Amino acid sequence: MKKLLLSLLASTIYTSTVSAQSCQQPPTCAEMGYTKSESDCTGKTTLKCPFDLSKVSCDEANQSWDMMGDPLTFKVNVTIDEGEYSTFVFSYGGNLIYLDCGNGSTPGTGSSATSDRGCIYRKSGEYIVKLYGAFHTISAPSLSDGTIQLLSFGSVGLKKIYKFCVKGQLPEIPSTVTDMSYAFENCNNLTGSIPELPSTVTNMSYAFHGCNKLTGSIPELPSNVTDISYAFLGCNKLTGSIPQLPSTITDMEDAFYNASKLTGTLQNYSTLPNLKSTSSAFYGTNITQTANPSWPSNSWNYDWSLDR
Contact 111/135 with Cβ under 8 angstroms? Predict the structure, then answer.
Protein backbone atom coordinates (compact mmCIF):
# COMPACT_ATOMS: atom_id res chain seq x y z
CA MET A 1 0.00 0.00 0.00
CA LYS A 2 2.86 2.42 0.86
CA LYS A 3 4.49 1.73 -2.52
CA LEU A 4 1.20 2.45 -4.29
CA LEU A 5 0.71 5.75 -2.43
CA LEU A 6 4.29 6.84 -3.16
CA SER A 7 3.83 5.97 -6.81
CA LEU A 8 0.60 7.97 -7.07
CA LEU A 9 2.20 10.95 -5.28
CA ALA A 10 5.21 10.94 -7.60
CA SER A 11 2.92 10.75 -10.61
CA THR A 12 0.90 13.74 -9.37
CA ILE A 13 4.03 15.85 -8.74
CA TYR A 14 5.42 15.00 -12.23
CA THR A 15 2.14 15.84 -13.93
CA SER A 16 1.90 19.19 -12.09
CA THR A 17 5.48 20.04 -13.04
CA VAL A 18 4.90 19.30 -16.71
CA SER A 19 1.68 21.36 -16.72
CA ALA A 20 3.43 24.31 -15.06
CA GLN A 21 6.29 24.23 -17.60
CA SER A 22 3.98 24.14 -20.64
CA CYS A 23 1.71 27.01 -19.52
CA GLN A 24 2.63 30.18 -21.48
CA GLN A 25 1.33 33.74 -21.53
CA PRO A 26 -0.55 34.30 -24.82
CA PRO A 27 0.75 37.12 -27.06
CA THR A 28 -0.98 40.47 -26.93
CA CYS A 29 -2.97 41.84 -29.84
CA ALA A 30 -0.27 44.45 -30.44
CA GLU A 31 2.46 41.80 -30.56
CA MET A 32 0.50 40.00 -33.27
CA GLY A 33 0.10 43.18 -35.34
CA TYR A 34 -3.46 44.10 -34.36
CA THR A 35 -2.76 47.76 -33.62
CA LYS A 36 -5.55 49.60 -35.44
CA SER A 37 -9.24 50.27 -35.01
CA GLU A 38 -11.89 49.48 -37.61
CA SER A 39 -12.12 53.14 -38.56
CA ASP A 40 -8.40 53.08 -39.44
CA CYS A 41 -9.00 50.30 -41.96
CA THR A 42 -12.03 51.54 -43.86
CA GLY A 43 -12.01 50.13 -47.38
CA LYS A 44 -9.20 47.66 -46.65
CA THR A 45 -9.03 43.93 -45.98
CA THR A 46 -9.46 43.67 -42.19
CA LEU A 47 -8.62 40.99 -39.60
CA LYS A 48 -9.78 41.10 -35.96
CA CYS A 49 -7.71 40.09 -32.95
CA PRO A 50 -9.12 36.85 -31.42
CA PHE A 51 -8.50 38.18 -27.88
CA ASP A 52 -9.95 41.68 -28.41
CA LEU A 53 -12.31 42.18 -31.34
CA SER A 54 -11.91 45.96 -31.17
CA LYS A 55 -8.29 45.65 -32.29
CA VAL A 56 -7.72 44.96 -35.99
CA SER A 57 -5.04 44.81 -38.66
CA CYS A 58 -5.48 45.70 -42.31
CA ASP A 59 -3.76 45.06 -45.61
CA GLU A 60 -1.46 48.03 -46.16
CA ALA A 61 -0.90 46.90 -49.74
CA ASN A 62 -4.38 48.23 -50.51
CA GLN A 63 -3.47 51.67 -49.25
CA SER A 64 -3.33 54.33 -51.94
CA TRP A 65 0.25 55.47 -52.50
CA ASP A 66 -1.06 59.00 -52.91
CA MET A 67 -1.63 59.02 -49.14
CA MET A 68 2.15 58.75 -48.57
CA GLY A 69 2.88 62.29 -49.74
CA ASP A 70 4.41 63.59 -52.94
CA PRO A 71 6.71 61.09 -54.65
CA LEU A 72 10.15 61.76 -56.07
CA THR A 73 9.30 61.63 -59.78
CA PHE A 74 11.33 60.98 -62.93
CA LYS A 75 10.48 61.01 -66.61
CA VAL A 76 12.39 58.19 -68.31
CA ASN A 77 12.69 58.17 -72.11
CA VAL A 78 13.75 54.70 -73.27
CA THR A 79 15.16 54.03 -76.74
CA ILE A 80 15.82 50.36 -77.52
CA ASP A 81 15.61 47.94 -80.43
CA GLU A 82 12.91 45.27 -80.51
CA GLY A 83 13.82 42.26 -78.42
CA GLU A 84 16.22 44.22 -76.20
CA TYR A 85 15.69 45.84 -72.81
CA SER A 86 16.82 48.87 -70.82
CA THR A 87 17.42 49.15 -67.07
CA PHE A 88 16.84 52.16 -64.85
CA VAL A 89 18.59 51.96 -61.47
CA PHE A 90 19.34 54.29 -58.56
CA SER A 91 20.59 54.09 -54.99
CA TYR A 92 18.96 55.40 -51.85
CA GLY A 93 19.30 55.39 -48.09
CA GLY A 94 16.26 55.23 -45.86
CA ASN A 95 13.67 53.10 -44.15
CA LEU A 96 11.00 52.47 -46.73
CA ILE A 97 10.49 52.91 -50.45
CA TYR A 98 7.70 52.09 -52.89
CA LEU A 99 8.67 52.15 -56.54
CA ASP A 100 6.28 52.49 -59.45
CA CYS A 101 8.12 51.99 -62.76
CA GLY A 102 5.31 53.42 -64.86
CA ASN A 103 4.98 50.26 -66.94
CA GLY A 104 2.79 48.24 -64.60
CA SER A 105 5.79 47.00 -62.63
CA THR A 106 6.09 47.72 -58.89
CA PRO A 107 9.31 46.05 -57.67
CA GLY A 108 8.26 46.47 -54.04
CA THR A 109 9.87 47.86 -50.95
CA GLY A 110 13.25 48.02 -49.32
CA SER A 111 14.09 48.47 -45.66
CA SER A 112 17.88 48.45 -45.36
CA ALA A 113 20.00 51.48 -44.51
CA THR A 114 21.16 51.67 -48.13
CA SER A 115 19.77 49.81 -51.08
CA ASP A 116 19.43 49.75 -54.85
CA ARG A 117 16.22 49.65 -56.82
CA GLY A 118 15.49 49.46 -60.50
CA CYS A 119 13.09 49.03 -63.38
CA ILE A 120 13.33 46.97 -66.56
CA TYR A 121 11.84 48.26 -69.81
CA ARG A 122 11.34 46.08 -72.88
CA LYS A 123 9.75 48.71 -75.15
CA SER A 124 10.85 52.15 -76.24
CA GLY A 125 8.74 54.96 -74.85
CA GLU A 126 8.25 57.53 -72.12
CA TYR A 127 7.66 56.29 -68.57
CA ILE A 128 6.92 58.17 -65.33
CA VAL A 129 8.80 56.61 -62.41
CA LYS A 130 7.60 57.41 -58.88
CA LEU A 131 9.38 56.80 -55.57
CA TYR A 132 7.27 56.90 -52.41
CA GLY A 133 8.42 56.52 -48.83
CA ALA A 134 10.84 57.99 -46.31
CA PHE A 135 14.47 58.04 -47.35
CA HIS A 136 17.24 60.53 -46.57
CA THR A 137 19.67 60.06 -49.48
CA ILE A 138 19.26 59.67 -53.22
CA SER A 139 22.12 59.11 -55.66
CA ALA A 140 23.34 57.89 -59.03
CA PRO A 141 20.25 57.40 -61.19
CA SER A 142 21.20 55.77 -64.50
CA LEU A 143 19.46 54.42 -67.59
CA SER A 144 21.23 52.01 -69.93
CA ASP A 145 19.44 53.28 -73.07
CA GLY A 146 17.80 56.70 -73.03
CA THR A 147 17.58 59.81 -70.84
CA ILE A 148 16.38 60.68 -67.33
CA GLN A 149 14.65 63.91 -66.38
CA LEU A 150 13.81 64.80 -62.79
CA LEU A 151 10.30 66.22 -62.47
CA SER A 152 10.08 66.58 -58.68
CA PHE A 153 12.05 65.79 -55.53
CA GLY A 154 8.71 65.22 -53.78
CA SER A 155 8.27 65.14 -50.00
CA VAL A 156 10.31 62.09 -49.04
CA GLY A 157 12.39 63.77 -46.30
CA LEU A 158 15.53 64.05 -48.43
CA LYS A 159 18.64 65.34 -46.61
CA LYS A 160 21.46 64.50 -49.04
CA ILE A 161 21.68 64.58 -52.83
CA TYR A 162 24.77 62.84 -54.23
CA LYS A 163 26.09 62.53 -57.81
CA PHE A 164 22.61 63.00 -59.16
CA CYS A 165 23.00 63.52 -62.91
CA VAL A 166 19.77 64.02 -64.83
CA LYS A 167 18.75 65.91 -67.97
CA GLY A 168 17.17 69.35 -68.19
CA GLN A 169 16.37 71.92 -65.53
CA LEU A 170 16.36 71.07 -61.85
CA PRO A 171 13.06 71.41 -59.95
CA GLU A 172 12.77 73.00 -56.51
CA ILE A 173 15.21 71.51 -53.99
CA PRO A 174 13.44 70.43 -50.76
CA SER A 175 13.92 72.50 -47.63
CA THR A 176 14.95 69.32 -45.77
CA VAL A 177 18.25 69.01 -47.66
CA THR A 178 21.36 69.77 -45.59
CA ASP A 179 24.18 68.23 -47.65
CA MET A 180 24.76 69.07 -51.32
CA SER A 181 28.42 68.08 -51.50
CA TYR A 182 29.04 66.47 -54.93
CA ALA A 183 25.30 66.75 -55.57
CA PHE A 184 25.48 67.44 -59.32
CA GLU A 185 29.21 67.08 -59.98
CA ASN A 186 30.03 66.98 -63.74
CA CYS A 187 26.32 66.80 -64.66
CA ASN A 188 26.75 68.44 -68.06
CA ASN A 189 23.21 67.54 -69.16
CA LEU A 190 21.77 70.02 -66.67
CA THR A 191 20.43 73.16 -68.33
CA GLY A 192 18.64 76.30 -67.25
CA SER A 193 19.23 78.15 -64.01
CA ILE A 194 20.10 76.92 -60.55
CA PRO A 195 16.98 76.72 -58.34
CA GLU A 196 16.73 78.42 -54.97
CA LEU A 197 19.14 76.89 -52.46
CA PRO A 198 17.55 75.86 -49.13
CA SER A 199 18.79 77.73 -46.07
CA THR A 200 19.27 74.34 -44.36
CA VAL A 201 22.27 73.42 -46.56
CA THR A 202 25.64 73.55 -44.78
CA ASN A 203 27.92 71.79 -47.29
CA MET A 204 28.08 72.69 -50.99
CA SER A 205 31.55 71.39 -51.81
CA TYR A 206 31.64 70.37 -55.53
CA ALA A 207 27.85 70.87 -55.70
CA PHE A 208 27.74 72.16 -59.33
CA HIS A 209 31.36 71.42 -60.23
CA GLY A 210 31.71 71.09 -64.03
CA CYS A 211 28.05 71.91 -64.80
CA ASN A 212 29.00 73.87 -67.90
CA LYS A 213 25.50 74.22 -69.40
CA LEU A 214 23.86 75.96 -66.44
CA THR A 215 22.89 79.57 -67.19
CA GLY A 216 21.68 82.60 -65.29
CA SER A 217 23.01 83.97 -62.03
CA ILE A 218 23.97 82.19 -58.82
CA PRO A 219 21.07 82.29 -56.32
CA GLU A 220 21.45 83.48 -52.75
CA LEU A 221 23.77 81.16 -50.85
CA PRO A 222 22.39 79.29 -47.80
CA SER A 223 22.78 81.36 -44.65
CA ASN A 224 24.44 78.48 -42.73
CA VAL A 225 26.73 77.10 -45.43
CA THR A 226 30.34 76.53 -44.35
CA ASP A 227 31.99 74.84 -47.35
CA ILE A 228 31.59 76.07 -50.95
CA SER A 229 34.96 74.80 -52.21
CA TYR A 230 34.85 73.86 -55.92
CA ALA A 231 31.08 74.48 -55.85
CA PHE A 232 30.84 76.36 -59.17
CA LEU A 233 34.20 75.47 -60.74
CA GLY A 234 33.98 75.43 -64.55
CA CYS A 235 30.40 76.79 -64.66
CA ASN A 236 31.37 79.04 -67.56
CA LYS A 237 27.86 80.04 -68.61
CA LEU A 238 26.81 81.50 -65.25
CA THR A 239 26.59 85.29 -65.36
CA GLY A 240 26.33 88.27 -63.03
CA SER A 241 28.06 88.90 -59.72
CA ILE A 242 28.40 86.39 -56.92
CA PRO A 243 25.86 86.71 -54.10
CA GLN A 244 26.74 87.87 -50.61
CA LEU A 245 28.97 85.32 -48.91
CA PRO A 246 27.55 84.21 -45.51
CA SER A 247 29.68 84.83 -42.43
CA THR A 248 29.62 81.07 -41.70
CA ILE A 249 31.89 80.18 -44.64
CA THR A 250 35.17 78.50 -43.74
CA ASP A 251 36.36 77.15 -47.11
CA MET A 252 35.90 78.62 -50.59
CA GLU A 253 38.94 77.16 -52.34
CA ASP A 254 38.44 77.13 -56.16
CA ALA A 255 34.76 77.97 -55.53
CA PHE A 256 34.26 79.96 -58.75
CA TYR A 257 37.40 78.87 -60.61
CA ASN A 258 37.03 79.45 -64.39
CA ALA A 259 33.40 80.53 -64.09
CA SER A 260 34.56 83.02 -66.67
CA LYS A 261 31.45 85.18 -67.08
CA LEU A 262 31.09 86.14 -63.42
CA THR A 263 31.68 89.83 -62.75
CA GLY A 264 31.79 92.29 -59.86
CA THR A 265 34.22 92.92 -57.00
CA LEU A 266 35.42 90.82 -54.09
CA GLN A 267 33.55 91.04 -50.82
CA ASN A 268 35.59 92.40 -47.92
CA TYR A 269 36.91 89.35 -46.08
CA SER A 270 36.51 91.06 -42.70
CA THR A 271 32.82 90.11 -42.92
CA LEU A 272 33.84 86.43 -43.02
CA PRO A 273 35.35 85.79 -39.57
CA ASN A 274 35.51 81.98 -39.98
CA LEU A 275 37.17 81.94 -43.40
CA LYS A 276 40.31 79.80 -43.70
CA SER A 277 40.92 79.28 -47.42
CA THR A 278 40.22 81.28 -50.59
CA SER A 279 42.91 79.72 -52.79
CA SER A 280 42.09 80.38 -56.48
CA ALA A 281 38.45 81.00 -55.54
CA PHE A 282 37.93 83.59 -58.29
CA TYR A 283 40.71 82.62 -60.70
CA GLY A 284 39.64 82.82 -64.35
CA THR A 285 36.61 85.03 -63.64
CA ASN A 286 36.02 88.71 -64.41
CA ILE A 287 35.75 89.50 -60.71
CA THR A 288 38.14 92.21 -59.54
CA GLN A 289 39.83 92.68 -56.19
CA THR A 290 39.36 95.67 -53.92
CA ALA A 291 42.43 97.50 -52.65
CA ASN A 292 42.61 95.42 -49.49
CA PRO A 293 40.22 92.50 -48.83
CA SER A 294 41.16 92.68 -45.10
CA TRP A 295 41.72 89.09 -44.11
CA PRO A 296 40.17 88.02 -40.77
CA SER A 297 42.72 87.55 -38.01
CA ASN A 298 42.35 83.75 -37.76
CA SER A 299 42.95 83.05 -41.48
CA TRP A 300 46.08 82.73 -43.55
CA ASN A 301 47.76 86.12 -43.96
CA TYR A 302 47.95 86.03 -47.77
CA ASP A 303 45.42 85.98 -50.56
CA TRP A 304 45.45 83.51 -53.45
CA SER A 305 41.83 84.08 -54.38
CA LEU A 306 42.75 85.55 -57.79
CA ASP A 307 46.17 83.93 -58.06
CA ARG A 308 47.75 87.33 -58.58
Answer: no
Q: In this structure, are residues 265 and 305 in contact, taking their beta carbons and an 8 Å threshold?
A: no
Neighbours of 96 (CB within 10 A): 13
How many angstroms separate the CA atoms of 209 and 291, rounded? 29
CB 90 within 8 A of CB 137: no
Contact predicate 98/107, CB 8 Å: no
- Spatial CA neighbour of 236 closest among 256, 264, 254: 256
Reported as a single tens digit per residue, the pLDDT across 218-260 is: 999 999 999 999 999 999 999 999 999 999 999 999 999 999 9
Cβ atoms of residues 62 and 89 within 8 Å: no
Q: Model's pTM, two decimal places?
A: 0.74
C-alpha radius of gyration, the chain, whole number: 30
CA distance 260 to 254: 13
